[in-house]
Amino acid sequence: MTEAFAGDKKKGQSLLGPVERRAINWMIPRIPRPIMSHHLTALTAVWSSLIVVFGWLATKNLQWLHGVSVMVFLQWLTDSLDGSLGKYRKQGLVKWGFFADHLLDLIFAGSVVIAYSFLVEARWLQFLFLILLLVTCATMATSFLSFAATNQFQIAYYGLGPTEIRIGYIALNTFVAAAGTAIFSWGVPVVVAINLMAFLILAGQTSKNLWAIDYEANVDGNPR
Prior knowledge:
Blueprint: E1 10-11, H1 17-27, H2 37-57, H3 65-89, H4 94-117, H5 123-150, E2 153-154, H6 162-179, H7 184-216
Parallel strand pairs: 1-2
Helix pairs in contact: 2-3, 2-4, 3-4, 3-6, 4-5, 5-7
């Protein structure tokens, strides 16, 4: 018997998850009828494009980073509501929603890294932003590949999920707009190191779990 698709059921809980859920449950019935879940999903492409534009404008005036923060907030809003709205309206776009939503989430994450990369001139910092982009994509890919193998989808680890990361973006934008980009000279290496370590831990744990699952599937416990 084929196992039911579970892409709409997330494993793990972020620190702000309960508060976020209450807010979503309050907003869903109040969304105008003409707005459907796929409209909200598609808006991430708009927010991501504007993040890149505002990041480029911030090279002339750092106050444009507040525009990036607004786009990050709007992406949280539409990304948080789309799946729940689809269930509430019984649209049935479960698999399409999983695909489109997380493809656009990947584009959104990349757009933020690209926007920040505009703000540095040193070649070594630009190179680190390329590494950060690669690590970000690899981390998200690990979650997707783990789901493909286990039918369990997890995007929050140790209490940190997409919402907490977005808050970090907004806090960083506010700080840089006020204090300047000097923080990048030491902050970017630290962020890259933390993200790389988190990716290696996640990939290692995922590999270990899948290895154990494969061995348990063998009746005698021996490889064939």
